[in-house]
Design goal:
elongated, alpha/beta, eight-stranded parallel barrel, TIM Barrel, three-stranded antiparallel beta sheet
């Protein structure tokens, strides 16, 4: 009996631990760590010196790029022949700049210029923030109004498709999001059968809100945002790379290779995947200032306010990110030698440490680092890369030359068609095996129930202590899993999880003990 109790305790602890972790993860919203595209600064005095490509783009290799609405005529500097698609970026559901975005969309000639040389023009629509995502997916009417509006903008300029950027979908809206993608795709094809739908993915789908297998048939291209913006510790001026292939700071969860592995395990097809790469950087800065702050007032009874005399001086240090486009970064640090990190495949410069001796690194991406990441993406079966953003280079043509040099390079077929293995087969078909195992277990349980209806079988089985133990364990776990769906939503469980868990285990042990006594008593009563 003591061994049985030990087994029950261990099983209950495991189930409680796993179940509580799962419930906690679903209750939290995920706010992406990446900086939203709309936050970047624009370069000044955009020059109109278009690059002229010398190579012909291979159709199997897709290069796309974003044109932020606020760059206005920067597209005059683009060579659209090197791009499969250009994405007009700016519209945000619930944003405060919608009118300015649509005004620019209405008057721009970029659509005609791009389509003339065979480059698709995509209208981007986004929804940033967990709260706005909840408001959006809790209302079918809101979703319908959103689709009506987006399709109106599509037809306004005879554009070639839509990009949806919804990085903060929560776990509870996983099914709603999948249905929204399906509905959006069907309506898009009804308007224009040749139109395409691109869907941007957060760097890591931490809430498991993107059901890749469910939405893949309705998505023409997935875009993996490579901007992890890992340098969030403001107390340190050291900057990590924005889009490292492998993170040199041993923070693998913020690397592109780890993000790709994450989505690969979710069943994504690399040939439908574009790697978005930054053409900007963020540099952590610190600002120290001396402010005069009034001393606190003291309230006494009866109400007498004593204003403490004078003010106090204090030194305040603020830490913040300074945004640089590629062109502005080079202008600011043009005298520095540019170095290359082979692990991150990122460029960087060394800056004197303002807080002491030694240097600190400022990472950024240029044509060299983006070219290296382009090669990495194609070698791993990606369809191509995307550049955020095309107008951030201004007078520089290095990036266009890099795209020209790679315009005929094809994605790796070996990486796209992964060799068969038993492990990968089981992983890809795990849902099928789950259904199969559930069916087999159902047959076994049904057989046991039928056997227990016959008194000789029932008496023989219940006399076996091992059978009785496993039967109680299976029934106890089933009841426990059912009850925890309710209990873990209870306030007392969330407030005192450990105490309530211990009480639950003790109650389970007492019930098991009394059930065993009852069974023995009933057996002894029989002749």
């Amino acid at each position: 009996m003591i061994k049985s109790i030990h087994k029950i305790v261990v099983l209950f602890l495991i189930v409680i631990g796993v179940w509580s972790c799962n419930n906690n993860s679903e209750m939290n919203y995920y706010y992406p760590s990446s900086f939203y595209r709309s936050n970047q600064l624009q370069p000044e005095n955009i020059a109109q010196k278009p690059y002229q490509a010398t190579n012909k783009r291979d159709s199997a290799n897709m290069t796309i790029g974003w044109h932020p609405y606020y760059l206005e005529d920067a597209y005059l500097n683009y060579d659209f022949s090197l791009l499969e698609s250009v994405i007009f970026h700016g519209y945000e559901w619930g944003g405060d700049n919608s009118e300015a975005v649509i005004d620019e969309w209405y008057k721009t000639s970029m659509v005609e210029d791009a389509q003339t040389v065979g480059c698709k023009v995509i209208f981007s629509a986004s929804n940033y923030g967990a709260l706005k995502s909840t408001l959006f997916f809790d209302s079918l009417k809101v979703q319908e109004q959103f689709m009506d509006k987006i399709f109106t903008y599509l037809k306004m300029k005879d554009a070639d498709g839509i990009e949806l950027d919804f990085p903060a979908v929560s776990a509870e809206h996983r099914t709603n999001f999948s249905q929204f993608i399906k509905t959006f795709y069907i309506r898009l094809k009804q308007i224009n059968s040749e139109a395409v739908l691109y869907v941007s993915l957060p760097f890591f789908d931490k809430n498991n809100a993107f059901d890749i297998r469910a939405i893949s048939p309705y998505v023409d291209l997935f875009i993996l945002g490579g901007n992890n913006s890992a340098n969030s510790n403001y107390d340190l001026l050291d900057n990590e790379p924005i889009a490292p292939i492998e993170n040199p700071y041993e923070n693998d969860s913020s690397s592109i290779s780890a993000a790709f592995k994450h989505y690969n395990e979710k069943g994504i097809n690399p040939f439908k995947l574009i790697l978005e790469l930054p053409y900007y950087t963020t540099v952590k800065q610190q600002e120290t200032r001396r402010d005069t702050i009034p001393k606190l007032k003291i309230e006494l009874e009866p109400v007498i306010i004593i204003d403490t005399i004078s003010f106090i001086d204090t030194v305040i240090t603020d830490y913040y990110h300074d945004f640089y486009s590629y062109e502005n970064f080079l202008k600011t640090y043009e005298e520095k030698d540019i170095l290359f990190d082979k692990m991150a495949l990122s460029s960087y410069i060394n800056i004197d440490n303002p807080n002491g001796s030694g240097n600190i690194k400022y990472y950024f991406d240029d044509s060299t680092s983006i070219g290296a990441k382009y090669d990495w993406a194609l070698n791993h079966g990606f369809r191509g890369v995307g550049i955020w953003a095309l107008g951030f280079d201004n007078n520089h043509t290095e990036m266009w030359q890099m795209l020209d040099d790679r315009s005929s390079k094809q994605p790796s077929l070996v990486a796209t068609n992964i060799p068969f293995s038993i492990g990968s087969y089981f992983h890809r078909n795990k849902k099928m095996f789950q259904v199969w195992l559930t069916f087999i277990l159902g047959i076994i349980v049904f057989g046991i129930i039928i056997a227990m209806l016959y008194w000789k079988s029932r008496d023989g089985l219940t006399a076996l202590h091992s059978f009785r133990f496993y039967l109680i364990i299976i029934a106890g776990l089933a009841i426990f899993l059912f009850l925890t769906r309710i209990l873990f939503q209870n306030l007392i469980f969330q407030t005192y999880p450990i105490s309530v868990t211990i009480i639950g285990i003790m109650i389970g042990l007492l019930l098991t003990y009394f059930i065993n006594i009852l069974i023995d008593y009933e057996i002894q009563k029989e002749p």
